[in-house]
Structure formats: structure tokens, C-alpha cells
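Data follows
____________
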Amino acid sequence: MGEEVGEYVADAVRVVRESGLPHRTDAMFTSVEGEWDEVMDVVKRAVAAVEARAPRVSLVLKADIRPGVTDGLTSKVETVERHLGA
């Protein structure tokens, strides 16, 4: 069995939730939506929270930069659900 990391992941997710930015956490990732600098600040603080307690930090970062788009976390899922219901 692999290392238990749930406690460390919770530390990072706590930082994201406390940021006030739109976010969504699932079994594999936490998505955060906002302006570049504010999102990168949250990422940096989330990594620091894990780094303070864990022997290492692994991070996967994917960015979808689309000026003028807001509420993408919700609208993208709603679009897929609309197509599934059709």
C-alpha cells in the first residue's frame, strides 16, 4: 500500500478553500479559478502548507487561460450535462 497523504492533501485544500476563490475538489485534483496572480499565490501557499509537514510535495499544474471567461468550473460541467440529457 502507498503512503497515506490524505492529511497533507487536506492541508493544501484548506488553503484553497480559505482563499475564497471558486474551486472544486474531486478524488484526484483540486481546480481553482481566478486571476493568474491570485491563483498562483494560492498554489504557492498550498504547496507551503504541505511542505511544512511532508517529506516531499508533488504538484500537477494545468492552466486554461481564457480572458473574459468566468465561472468555467460550473459552466463547463453544465454544458456536458446538457449534452448528456439531450
Summary: The two ends are 42 Å apart (CA to CA). The helical segments are 6-19, 36-51, 72-85. The first helix runs from residue 6 to 19. The longest strand covers residues 23-25.
